[in-house]
Amino acid sequence: MEKYKIYHLSHTDLDGYGCQMVTNHFFKNVEFLNSNYGKEINERVNQIIQSIASSDVENNLILITDLNLTPEQAKDLEGKVKTNQKEVKLLLLDHHKSGQDCANEYDWYYLDHNRSATKITYDFFSVIMSEDKKLSKLVDVINAVDIWLDDKPEFELGKVCLGLISGAREINRIMFNKENSAYMFNILKEIQPYFLETNPHIALDSAMHTIKKEFFKTTKDDTLSNLVSTCNVSMLTKNRDKMTINYGDFKGILTYNIGNVSVIGNDFLKANPDYDFFMDITSRKTISLRANGKLDVSKMAGRIGNGGGHPNASGGLLNSFKDSFIYDNIRKQVKDIIITKGVHNG
């Protein structure tokens, strides 16, 4: 398996990230992607196929866990793999009964509704590689809550873990996929020592805030909000060239569903004084704009989004925006919308 580049696509919940934690334990050359159901699966599959085409690696494995493909999605995926010029193997490990038709048709589609996807993934690879007692305990915790084994001693602990992962939205996975994966893996690593406490679910529940803060803390302590903002500003600054948009002669940065726009937007503009505005667009087509006095974003909001507000803080709605799960597609759409409104660079 080491000769393969693995593209691991999994769900966005505790079980989905648990599967990836298992893969990350056993293998090195892995690219992790996550998806919810529906259209996003199609976009992620296309993203993987494009990555394989542009890579110099000849042997590839597409591993999908905790995601139930529709018959149409399964057929499309197999077709893309069969017509690929490189060697691409498929493996899907899932536990949702709704995937039975696909499991009956495709030999790469493995289904077992009696175990969580994390446990299926662990059992599958630990037979090939080796057992790991510490990892197997995490697997048991995830398994207990994911398939709702409320009579198991790990169940209450699993509930706390479930809430911790579902609430860990400090890093946007659409813009910062690798960083988000690292954050999730860190949480799944840091929760494990609490499994040995007398009342592990209570101990972990009390420590959730600290676990998050420790990940974002660098040289000094601060509120979680400020630590998260500092982290996001650092990531945005590092990637600002590929996230830049223009509004006439003004230069700005575009984010997607970043949240806490007032804090992160103003902090970014302070850290990057050569930028004139900060724009965040959401999956609901709304935009939030922040500025530093060089551009009246209330006028900008009115022109491109039928909105308004204050000169340095405004919002609007981009009616023609079609939600996507690939940042480059989102940025291209917003740039095109600005142009259609009659605003040109320079």
Describe the 3D structure.
By secondary structure, this protein is an alpha/beta fold. The chain folds into two domains: 212 residues, Alpha-Beta Complex (inorganic pyrophosphatase (n-terminal core)), CATH 3.90.1640; 102 residues, Diaminopimelate Epimerase, Chain A, domain 1, CATH 3.10.310. 48% of the residues lie in helices and 17% in strands. It is built from 13 helices and eleven strands. The strands form two sheets. The protein has a six-stranded mixed sheet. Helix 1 packs across helix 8, helix 6 packs across helix 7 and helix 9 crosses helix 10. The longest helix has 17 residues. The termini are far apart. The mean pLDDT is 96.
Number of domains: 2
Overall radius of gyration: 22 Å
Low-pLDDT runs of 5+ residues are none
- Structural class call reads alpha/beta
Strand residue content: 15-25%
Number of strands: 11
CATH class label of the largest domain: Alpha Beta
Helices, strands, pairings?
Layout: E1 5-10, H1 14-26, E2 30-34, H2 39-54, E3 59-65, H3 71-82, E4 87-94, H4 100-105, E5 109-111, H5 117-128, H6 133-146, H7 155-166, H8 177-190, H9 200-216, H10 224-238, E6 244-247, E7 250-256, H11 261-271, E8 277-281, E9 286-291, H12 297-305, E10 308-310, E11 313-317, H13 327-340
Parallel strand pairs: 1-2, 1-3, 3-4, 4-5, 7-8
Antiparallel strand pairs: 6-7, 8-9, 9-11, 10-11
Helix pairs in contact: 1-5, 1-6, 1-8, 2-3, 5-6, 6-7, 7-9, 9-10, 10-11
